[in-house]
Amino acid sequence: MENSINKILDTVKKNISSKEYDLAIENLKKVIQIDPKHLVALSTLADLFVFKKNFLESINFLNKIIQINPKIHFVHNNKGFCLLSLNKIEEAKVCFEMAIKYKEDFSDAYNNFGIAFKKEKNLNEARKYFLKAINLNKKYIQAYSNLISVDIELNNLSSAKTYCEEAIKINSNIKELYNSLGLIFDKKNEVEKSISFLKKALSLSPNYLASIINLARIYLTQKDYKNSSIYFRKALDIDQNNMKALSNFIYLKLKICDWDNLEELLKRLFINMDKNHQIVQPYILMLLKDDLKLQYENTRKWSAQYETSKINSFQSNNKKIKIGYFSTDFKNHAVISLAKNLFINHNKKKFDIFGINLSNRYLKKDIDVNLIQSFNEFIDCGYKSNNEIEDICKKINLDFAIDMNCYTEGGRIDIFQNKLAPIQINFLGYPGTSGSKFFDYILADKVLITENDKKHYSEKIIFMPDTYQPNSFSSSQSLSNQIKKDLLIPKEKFVFCCFNNSFKINKLIFDVWVEILKQSNNSIMWLLEDNLIQSENLKKYCENQGINSSRIFFAKRVDYQQHLDRFKQADLFLDTFPYGGHTTAIEALNSDLPILTLKGETFQSRVSSSLLTNLNLIELITDSKNNYIKLAVELSQNSDKLIKLKQTLKENKKNSKLFNNEIYTKNLEDALEKIHLSFTLGKKLENIYL
Q1: Does the structure show a pLDDT above 60 at 25?
Q2: C-alpha angle 162/163/167, rounded to 5°?
Q3: By percentage, how much of the chain surpasses pLDDT 90?
Q4: Angle 679-684-686 (CA atoms, 0-180°, nearest 5)?
Q5: SS3 of 77, please?
Q6: In terms of Cα–Cα distance, which of 296, 495, 325, 460 is closest to 399?
Q7: How far is 73 from 125, CA to CA, in rounded Å?
Q8: Tens digits of per-residue pLDDT, 267-288?
Q9: Of 428, 446, 451, 461, nearest to 610 (Cα)?
Q10: What is the pLDDT of residues 483-505, one digit of tens each?
C-alpha cells in the first residue's frame, strides 16, 4: 500500500510541475481513497483548491486534517485564510486564534489576524497585529507592507516612512515599497520626492500599474498635463479597463477640453460600470452624466470601502452646541467665499464653532485672520493622523461634524467613518449624496431634491426654506470700475459668458454654445481660461465647427474683486451641464447678470435652478437643449426682454432672502437645534423641513 501511495505522489509532483492541477487533484483523491488520513495528500489538496480559488473545497480538506490532528498550527491558519477570502471574518479570526494557541510565535497567523481587522476597517487593531508579526519575524516583508498600508490610510506618515525605510534595508528591490514612499511624500505635499520614488518603483518594474497611475495623477494635480497624459495612456495600454486610469484620464481630457476619442473612453467606462459592476470616483461621475440613480448606486458602493463596525459612542452634555466645520478649503476657495459669513453670523451665545483645517498646503498662519477669529478655535489637522483628529474631536466633544469636502479634492472622508460627532453632515463642497452610513444629513432644498428623489440619498435631508447655498454677499452692489475695453472684449458685441471651471465645459454643452453663436451673429463667448491647452483646444474646435475663433475670448485668473467686477461686462451667463455653476452662479446673480440654465435630475445640475427659483426667475430655467438654445438666441436679439429681465433680477433681489446670511444662518441653527434635541431624546433621525 505504501509503495502504491508513493508512486501516486510521484505522479502528483510531476502533475504540479507541469501545471496539470486537475490531474494532480484526481491523483491525490486516489491517495485519500487508499488512506483517508494521509495528511500530506489532504494538505496538498487543500493548497491546490486555494490555488484554484475554490476556498470552500479547501476548507473541506483542512477540516479533515483538523479532525485527525487538531494541533497543527498552520492548518488553522490556512483555514482562516480561506475564510477571509470568503469574507467570513469572525470565523477566520477564530482560526487564527487557534493557530496562535498551538504556536505562540506564529508570525503568519498574526499577520493574517491583522488582515482580518483591516478588512473590518478596524485599522488600529490591525496595526497591533502587523507589529506583532514583525517583532516575531524581523524580515517579514509582507507584514511590513501591510503595516505601511495601514499607516498611510491612517495618515501616520512619519511611521509609514520609517517602516518603508526599514523594509528597504531588508530588500531594496521591492517596487511596492517605493510606491508607498511615493504616496507618503505625495500626502506630505513633497512632490519632487514623491515623483522620484514612484520612478524608482518603475525602474524595478516598468509596467507596474500602481506607480504609473500615481505618477499620472500627481502630474495632473501639478497641472503638468503633458506628462499626466503620457502616464495615463501607458496605464491604459497595460489595462484598458482600469477604472482609476480610465476615469482620471477622462477628467484630464475634460480639464483641457480635449474631446478627441473621449466618446470611446466614456463608452468603455459606462460599460464597465453597467456590465462589470465597476465603480468610479464619485466627483468625476458628476461631471459625466445626469443620472441620479446611477450616482447613488455608485457612491453607495464607493463609500463601502470606508464602512466600519467600530462606531464611537457619544454623550451630549455641552452647555452650548458644538459644531466642527471640516475643510481643506479655508483659504481662497469658492466654498469659503460662500460660507465665511455663516461662520461669522453663528449665534455664539448658543453655539461654539470650530474650524478643522484639513489642508496640508495652507495652515492657520496662511489664512485670513478675520476668518480665523470667527471660530472659537481653529485647528490645523492637515498633517495629523486619523487617530489624532479623532482624539481632538473627543476632547472638544463635538455635537456636529460638518464635512465641507466629502469626495472633492483633498477630502478625508475616512476620518468620519468611526464618527467624530454624534451627528455628521455632508455640506456644500460636494453636491450630492455621500452614499455612506456614517453621514446622517445632507443640506438641500426642495428644488435640488424632490420628495421622489429622497430614495436616492443615503442621508436624511435638511430642507432649507429658501436655498441650500449660503453666500457672503450683500444685496447692495458696488458699481464695477472695469469696462469692456480694459478687459479686451469688444464693446459692440453681445457677450455670453461662463466662468465655470474648464472641466465642466464638455462637448455636449459646448456644441449647444456653438449653435447659439451660429444663430446670434453679433455675439461672442467669454470663458475663464484655466490653462492654455484648454483655450487652444476650444479655439480649434470652434474653427472646425465653422465658428471663427476670434469670437471666443478668455478671462485670465485674477484677484477675487476683479473677478467679480467682470460679471458686469457680460450680458448673459450660460450655465454648464450636467455640472452647473455653484459659486459662479451666485456671483453672477449678485452682479445682476441673468443665468440661463438647463435643469437636470441631479443635485449638481440644479443649483442655478434653485437660485433662480428663489429669485422668481423660473423663465431662465430650461428643460432641454433646444429650449436653452432658443432662449439664449432670443435674449441676444431682444434687448428689451433682456433689460426687463435684468430689472426684474434687481428688484427681486431686494425682496429675496437669498443674500441675507443672517436669516440663512438662523435657519440652519434652527435645524441643528431640532436635530440635537431629537438626538438627546434618543429619537430616530428624520428629514428636517424648515
Answers
A1: yes
A2: 120
A3: 93
A4: 95
A5: helix
A6: 325
A7: 22
A8: 999 999 999 999 999 999 999 9
A9: 446
A10: 666 677 898 999 999 999 999 99
Cα 601 to chain centroid, rounded: 21
Residue 689: DSSP 8-state: E
Torsion of CA 242, 245, 247, 248, to 10 degrees: 170
Q: What is the dihedral of CA 643, 649, 651, 655, to 10 degrees?
A: 170
Task: Locate 117 and state its grid cell.
Answer: 481587522
Which candidate, 156, 155, 205, 152, places its Cα nearest to that of 176?
205
376: enclosing H helix or E strand = none
Which of the 8 DSSP states describes residue 346?
S
User: Residue 319 gets which letter from DSSP?
Assistant: S
When mean pLDDT is compared across 208-217, 302-311, 545-554, the lowest value belongs to: 302-311
Chain center to CA of 141: 31
Residue 333 has pLDDT above 90, yes or no: no
Tens digit of each residue's pLDDT (9 = 90 or more) over 82-129: 999 999 999 999 999 999 999 999 999 999 999 999 999 999 999 999
Q: Tell me the three cell numbers of residue 185.
A: 511624500
Q: Which domains does the chain have, with CATH numbers?
A: 312-463 (3.40.50.11380), 494-658 (3.40.50.2000)
Q: What is the largest CA-CA distance in the chain?
A: 104
**Closest C-alpha among 441, 354, 392 to residue 672:** 441
Q: What is the mean pLDDT of the chain?
A: 95
| Residues 6 or more apart in contact with residue 192 via CB below 8 angstroms | none
Over residues 181-233, the pLDDT tens digits come to: 999 999 999 999 999 999 999 999 999 999 999 999 999 999 999 999 999 99
- Taking the C-alpha atoms of residue 279 and residue 299, their distance in angstroms, rounded to an integer, is 8
Nearest Cα to Cα of residue 417 among 404, 401, 431, 398? 401
Q: CA of 519: how far to CAs of 191, 391, 512, 632, in Å?
A: 48, 61, 11, 10
| Backbone angles phi and psi of 570, in degrees to 5 | -100, 160
The pLDDT of residue 309: 78
- Rounded Cα distance between 387 and 393, Å, is 10
